[in-house]
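Dig into what follows:

_____
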Amino acid sequence: MKFLTHSVHNISFVTKNMLTLICCAAALAACQSSTHTHLEKTHLEAKTNNKHNVLFISIDDLRNELGAYGSALAQSPSIDLLASKGITFDRAYAQQAICGPSRASIMTGLRPDTLEVTHNYVKFRHKFKDVKTIPQHFMENGYNAGYVGKIFHHGDKDEENSWNWPAATHLLPAHIKAPGTYALEANNKLQDEYRKQMFAKYGEQAKYGLGRGPATEGADVPDYAYIDGYNAEVADKTLEQLAKQDKPFFFGFGMNKPHLPWIAPKKYWDLYDPLKIKAALAKVNQSKPKKGAAMGLHASFELRTFSDIPNMGEIPLEQQVHLMHSYLACISYIDAQIGRTIKKLEELNVLDSTVIVLWSDHGFHLSDKGIWGKASNYEIATRVPFIISTPQTRASGQALRTNALVELIDIYPTVSELANIPQANHVEGSSLVPLIKNPDLKWKDSALSQFPNPALREWGAYPLRPGMRETYFGELIVDVENRIKKQFPEKWDRKLFEQDLMGYSLRTDRYRLIAWMNTQTTSPEPLFVELYDHQNDPNENVNVAADQPHTVKTLMQKLTNRLQ
């Protein structure tokens, strides 16, 4: 400006006036630009600081097998990095260790008994038609809500109520197509042949999950050749669209793995040494709990629906190693997709205004207590990974951890408060924001989970259909029944044990109480009780209920109060 002022003295009056006008115009434009930039910044702050975006990451069947939770095997760098920039909940518990009820509970903020959703074959709105789900609540508070992958349980996705933003599949490159289950044609053919065999042999009963192909696959293919990598491609395109809007977004990113079948590209299998896996498996207690409930464990029904798994008896050690290997490969595979999606938020310049919530719907037995699968009331099936990362926790640069007892039902009020929107008035959980601010805060004295008799339920927690006894599972069912009859000779009743028996599990700081209740009576007296002392028995190997009657009485009263 000094140079400009000096030059004006040597030019004509007209030129001076023209230059003055130009300078004024330039100044006005600069002012307008500054005002516009300020307005944009103010709008952005109103959009992000007052109502944060939410990346809602769900994972299917993932136990606490992550580096962030101390796993000596799992390679999960993306989730571990997320944990280092957020708060890790060391003791988080699912309300029920099966997909449908767990997800229905999380997404509505209501417990399985309240919803009357305790198996996979009932819609979560069957009792409460107008219950507001998490994304529905966000939409009502000014958000766009979209998802890719598995958020709700398959078959009950609530498309018409809970989502208003479509997945951007139409924007994918032409060479990326929605994949089938297997990438190898030989396995697709094997699945077709096996399924035909099951239908020919068992008729209608086969449609409830029999006749699957191999339990594992590790083809040398790109990530998008399997479902979670494909969904990551769709998530990229969808987030690009959401980030352009003048509304904040709630985006659900649902991983299908490590749900069976355990399928991941070869490069993720290559991360692991089978000898180390074998050594780790050798340390797992594969025995049933001493003095435990005969109905507390199933016969690995779901895994046995696959063509290469023995229908009966123990799974050979080498196959166990292979199965564990495949599960770990799936963990690394979905970890890569999660890392990619978080990086996409950063590329879109919205990470600094986004809350990230990561959870698994339940845990999983990998030979623990002699079974493979979810669907139990024990620690290994009910405890889950749960991590929250916010703009504030990331800015602090300090990894947070809490040992507080929390439940997945707490997600709904927590994410609402973190996003700075009003609380829904129907939820049964509690916001965990105070714990994020102070991880050592005194918190709940217990976490409540439940599961109907796992031993005499199908793998979707549905009571045994009559035709199931006619399949190759018949012998397994008879074996389980005989064990129950032996333990409860005077109480055996098929209807009671197959349809009316519910196990309620109360996890306190020191103990796990499992009370097996007849849901058709009003009596508070359980049919059987299990008590595990985590101070002396963290793997829940010995039921000490008979040795600690006072503890059982105290915890039963606490459980009764919680169930009222």
In short: The two ends are 77 Å apart (CA to CA). The mean pLDDT is 92.
